[in-house]
Specification:
This protein is an alpha+beta fold and 134 residues long. It has one domain: Aminopeptidase (3-Layer(aba) Sandwich), CATH 3.40.630.30. The chain is built from two helices and seven strands, in the order βββαβαβββ. It has a seven-stranded mixed sheet, with helices on one face. The longest helix is centred in the C-terminal third of the chain and has 15 residues, at 83-97. The radius of gyration is 15 Å and the shape is globular.
């Protein structure tokens, strides 16, 4: 998978709600990671829930589904200015991993902002250059 994953279950889906068609997640699976040293890392840098469906659990359910569908190491990235996204991802990842994740702020030309790293515990170490651990 490379590019955008459009999460669009139909009314008969496991979630049973057509409103999930309004979730769009941009994922690049198995690409070069910014901070994970796992040999292959799944990355989410775009994830959008239509405003009227926010805070109803759809985003969390969609994220869990994506994590389950593509097991392994993960990096979830947010822009520095997007505080609501950072709060959302910390809640979701904390719940999904039962607190077994790391968050840092990356300050590089190719990415500036928070990144959460989790999964693939045997290889879930982080590169140390340009990283501020939180």
């Amino acid at each position: 998978m490379d590019g955008h994953l459009q999460t669009t279950p139909n009314d008969q889906s496991e979630w049973g709600d057509s409103r999930l068609r309004l979730i769009n997640a941009g994922c690049s699976e198995r690409v070069r990671a910014h901070v994970s040293e796992a040999s292959k890392t799944n990355i989410v840098s775009d994830f959008f829930i239509v405003r009227k469906y926010r805070k109803k659990g759809y985003g969390k359910r969609a994220a869990f589904h994506i994590f389950d569908q593509f097991p392994g190491a993960w990096e979830i990235r947010q822009t520095l200015a997007n505080k609501p996204a950072n709060q959302f991802w910390n809640r979701v990842i904390d719940s999904y991993t039962e607190g077994m994740y790391k968050e840092m702020i990356l300050n590089e030309e190719r990415w500036t902002g928070p990144i959460q790293v989790f999964g693939d515990e045997h290889n879930n170490t982080m590169k140390s250059d340009s990283i501020q651990l939180l």
